[in-house]
Amino acid sequence: MSSFLWGNGSAWESQTTRDIYGAVMTVHTLPKPAIRAKVPTADASMMKALVYLSPGKKGLVDRPKPAIAAPTDAIVRITNTTICGTDLHILKGDVPTCKPGRILGHEGVGVVEAVGAAVTVFKPGDRVLISCISACGKCEYCRRQMYSHCTSGGWILGNTIDGTQAQFVRIPHADTSLYPIPHGADEEALVMLSDIMPTGFECGVLNGKVVPGGVVAIVGSGPIGLAALLTAQFYSPAQIIMIDLDDNRLEVAKRFGATATINSTNGKAAAAVMKLTGERGVDTAIEAVGVPATFELCEQIVAPGGVIANIGVHGKPVALHLERLWDRNITMTTRLVDTVSTPMLLNILASHKIDPKLLITHHFSLDNVIEAYETFGHAADTRALKVIIQA
87 and 123: one domain? Predict the structure, then answer.
């Protein structure tokens, strides 16, 4: 058998044989086509997502892409998201409203992929900031600007509906729950405006009634506490005292504008605050951790007439020491962020008065989101503040 090229360059095979009369003849045939292995193709209807499986367990899994479920919905393709301390509380089992099987995450930026028939502000292709709070804009609570208690929204992303730690997310009430990204804005910095910047400002600074010349203590120098530190400086307090167990985070707080820092490892933080304030205490004590010990520290350091502003997500009971506080004329506030300050913070970011990107310490792809959680969850060892996850 021999072979030669014919016409279009195909290799023909030739074989000598005899016909029925015994005459020699040569037969030319094309070779059988090679059998090609099927190349697997990605299923366009599926996406990657980080899912809460059970207390202490999470996984990166394939999930169906979300679809428009109501005329006011938008589907957003996530470009950047992050992990919040609240996500860690969910994984501990501290948030009973979040059930196993939920896609986590309530922060991020992305590109509008599709919109429902009733969406008028946004269109496919628009780049948007996702608010951690979904708001209908019409119910009793929304009319009072308590968007966190919207009767058909509030904090639902990554809690009672699937969230943003995925390639795509469905956003209810899109017209009032998304913000257009200004031209030229740094999208990684904007991720910090989904939640932690308005949370630190509204729940800590505004509720805490920070005033010019006042004395502020922030218990917890994690991302939320640092966000409160950055935004407290809008009001020029005389002192901002940061308290934490981690010297690295306290050093970061100094760079961000803290006038004093206290490591509370030795259990003597209250005495140290009193010494710094002439035994008076602080006008505003902001709790930014969410454990009993830090809230009770706020009770010990608040001055007569002062405010304790709670930000932390508490999963356990906390003692309220009225035997010490009943006559102190103090105010205690709790709040879930309403994101009413987001437009203002967008303007301040555009004017470069604050730089939320200072809070970002690590970057990961969505494929490495489990590693991102390990890094964020062991911040004392990794020195992580906020991590950016690129989807």
Answer: yes
pLDDT in tens, 211-266: 999 999 999 999 999 999 999 999 999 999 999 999 999 999 999 999 999 999 99
Is 40 part of a structural domain of the chain?
A: no
Q: Is the pLDDT of residue 94 over 70?
A: yes
Q: How far apart are CA 188 and CA 106, in angstroms?
A: 15
- How many domains in the chain? 3
Identify whether residues 299 and 383 lie together within a single domain: no
DSSP collapsed to 3 states, the chain: CEEEEECCCEEEEEEEEECCCCCEEEEEECCCCCCCCCCCCCCCCEEEEEEEEECCEEEEEEEECCCCCCCCCEEEEEEEEECCHHHHHHHHCCCCCCCCCEECCCCEEEEEEEECCCCCCCCCCCEEEECCCECCCCCHHHHCCCHHHCCCCECCECCCECCCCECEEEECCHHHHEEECCCCCCHHHHHCCCCHHHHHHHHHHHCCCCCCCCEEEEECCCHHHHHHHHHHHHHCCCEEEEEECCHHHHHHHHHHCCCEEEEHHHCCHHHHHHHHCCCCCEEEEEECCCCHHHHHHHHHHEEEEEEEEECCCCCCCCCCCHHHHCCCCCEEECCCCCCCCHHHHHHHHHCCCCCHHHHEEEEEEHHHHHHHHHHHHCHHHHCCCEEEEEC
Is there a single domain that holds both residue 208 and residue 188?
A: no
Range of the domain at 304: 198-333
Q: What is the CATH number of the domain that holds 71?
A: 3.90.180.10
Tell me which residue of 131, 143, 136 sits closest to 106, measured CA to CA. Answer: 131
Residue 133 near residue 338 (C-beta atoms within 8 A):
yes
Residue 120 inside a domain? The answer is yes
Q: What are phi and psi of 233, to 5 degrees?
A: -70, -10
Tell me, yes or no, whether 249 and 377 share the same domain: no
Per the structure block, which two tokens stand in for 243? 């308290």
pTM for the full model? 0.87
Q: Is the dihedral of CA 316, 321, 326, 329 positive or negative?
A: negative
Mark residue 290 as left, alpha or beta (left: phi above 0; alpha: psi -120 to 50; beta: remaining): left
Alpha-carbon 69 to chain mean position: 23
